[in-house]
Amino acid sequence: RKKYDYVFTTGGIGPTHDDITTDCVAKAFGVEAKVDENALEKMKAFLDGKELTDPLLKMLHVPEGGELIYSPATKAPGYKIENVFVMAGIPKIMQGMLEGMYDYLEAGDIVKSKSHDIMVGESFFAEELTEIQNQFSNVSVGSYPFSRDGVYGATIVLRSSDDKALASCEKLVLKLISKF
Predict the structure, then answer these.
(1) What's the pLDDT score for residue 52?
(2) Which of 8, 61, 90, 120 lies in disulfide reach of 33, CB 3.0 to 4.6 Å?
(3) Segment 68-116, tens digit of pLDDT
(4) Of 62, 66, 71, 67, nearest in space to 99 by CA
């Protein structure tokens, strides 16, 4: 967590015995995990007099110093502590928690991507793709192999925050693809 601007983790904050993320995060920060009073009040209001079970209480534990992150899809929160964001593992709930994190995150450069398929194996174009990458230090050039209907190919993905460099690199990649 000290090496990175942000650390994101999903899952392991549910009600079962194998949901150990909160205890592990608390241990990593040298603090206790306790039931968060705000989370408890929201859960009680949601339950409207129904029993607040130990498994439900487990989902309300947050490391001391943590700030709650809610999702519209649930009353059980995720949380952030310093630069570590802990979210639910269920995709719909996690996506809702992501919405609640934007205020905590600093905006960076917008990275755009372009992707193109080439219908030959990577060994046929690896050297030329390396040459293209070497010409563009500010463009990430990746090759991701696949097999479709018994034919090998790859998706070449270009990523950059520099529109001009991305466009120039893409022209060379399209020229490479046209050879096959």
Answers:
(1) 94
(2) 61
(3) 998 888 888 999 999 999 999 999 999 999 988 888 888 889 999 999 9
(4) 71
Architecture of domain 7-104: 3-Layer(aba) Sandwich (3.40)
CATH architecture of 112-178: 2-Layer Sandwich (3.30)
Q: Which residues lie closer than 8 Å to 63 by C-beta, 6 or more apart?
A: 22, 25, 26, 29, 31, 32, 33, 79, 81
Distance CA 71, CA 96 (A): 4
Distance CA 156, CA 146 (A): 11
- Both tokens of 79, joined, read 């949380």
Number of H helices, E strands in the chain: 6, 9
User: Confidence band (pLDDT; 50, 70, 90) for 1?
Assistant: confident
Domain limits of the chain? 7-104, 112-178
Residues β-bridged to residue 114:
158
Q: Contact at 8 Å (CB) between 77 and 62?
A: yes
Return the pLDDT at 74: 86
> Which amino acid, one-letter code, is at 50?
K
Q: What are phi and psi of 166, to 5 degrees?
A: -60, -45
Structure pTM? 0.66
